[in-house]
Amino acid sequence: MNLLKTSVLNGIASLIKIAAMFVLNKILAVYVGPAGYAAISQFQNFIQMVITFAGNAINTGVVKYTSEYHEDEKRQRELWRTAGSIVLVCSLILMALIILFQKTIILYLFGSTEYQIILVWFAIFLIFFSFNAFLLAILNGMQDISKLVVANIFGSIFSLAITSLLAINFGLKGALIALSIFQSLNFVVTIILCYRTSWFKFSYIFGVIQRDIAKKLSIFALMVLISVFFDNISQILIRKIIISEFGINYAGYWDAMTKLSNGYLMLVGSILSIYYLPKLSQLQTYIEIKKEVNYGYKWILPIAIITCLTIFIMKEWVVKLLFTDQFLPMLELLSWQLVGDVIKIGGWIVGYVILSQAMMKIFIGTEIFFALSIIPLTVLFSGIWGYKGITIAFATNGLLYWGVCNYLAFKKLNNIKNSKIGFF
């Protein structure tokens, strides 16, 4: 499947997801306010870390090797059985740990036990989070984009419906409960879609763990675990810095700015994950990879720039439409956030080369360094430029990441392929 067809199909799902997210943001802005945004983001950071440790960390490997073994059905099934068994075991362990230490966890996240029941809901439904993501990874690797699109559309609808209903009726607590349970409905749709394919049987997703496959998946698991863990830890620390220096409402403005940013980044990120990861995994030569990356720069970066310029021109109207007048202070962050988003997309394009070619040392080193380096940059730049220094730090950190990853990735490929061809 080519980039254009993938982009069109994925664009449909992404536009629906973005629209649902923006409607949901409006509802949350009205019913929980800026401080509630900070609390919701805190819980989302926790959820992302947990589901990654519960099995999502291997899904990048599932996509890669499902695609790579497309001519070997026996090997594909060994991969799925190994991965499915790992997901099951990890999910059950995490479920037990969350229930056992629920009070300690909730006190760390919110400083009170008011929302302790939320962790119980999340623990119970964690296994559905994990297997929904696992089956979507298989669909991605099989390049069954139509079913992947349908699953993502239903996911967006369920997220909007459940979160809206609970937030309107129960406020912040309802929104947090919704985050803990809506993936269970997504899983029902995904399993139905997979069941109707010729390649799916329940016996293919559970079974003996093959040591060699588990070892291959562990490389991707380590990379993703490090990426997600340090990324979420850095967000938690930045949020604490903002609360300490400017107050919890300003942390909410920053989180709202991040959600606005994620809305349009979602479209680009999903195209890259659905098209680029399987595609780059199949490419074998330096020249092929270079050509594919340049193709991404040629088409994706200009679209990102145009989108960001449009948002900047309509910035006040956008904030009032998607949030409320309470969130207008976030405009102070907007210009540098948009610059940083364009830079981030450029870094993603070359970052997928590192991920697809399993350059573990480069990936781990850059992820840890740049996830942590944004903390002192945030402290330094907010001290110099005030609140907007937070997004200046974001853009600066992203530019350094892009440059370093570009240099290291293609230097490594050049050495591996024994090629004398330079990049750009």
Automatic annotation (TrEMBL):
Q: Name one Pfam family in it.
A: Polysacc_synt
Transmembrane stretches, start-end: 12-34, 46-65, 86-111, 117-139, 148-168, 174-196, 217-238, 258-277, 297-314, 334-355, 362-384, 390-410
Any one Gene Ontology cellular component term annotated for this protein: plasma membrane
Where is the major localization of this protein?
Answer: membrane
Please give the superkingdom of this protein's source. Answer: Bacteria
One of the GO BP terms on file: enterobacterial common antigen biosynthetic process
InterPro entries tied to this protein: Poly_Biosynth_Transport, Polysacc_synth, WzxE
Compartments, as annotated in UniProt:
Cell membrane
Q: Which keywords label this protein?
A: Cell membrane, Membrane, Transmembrane, Transmembrane helix
**Keyword Endoplasmic reticulum carried by entry:** no
Q: How does it sit in the membrane?
A: Multi-pass membrane protein
Query: What is this protein identified as?
Result: O-antigen translocase
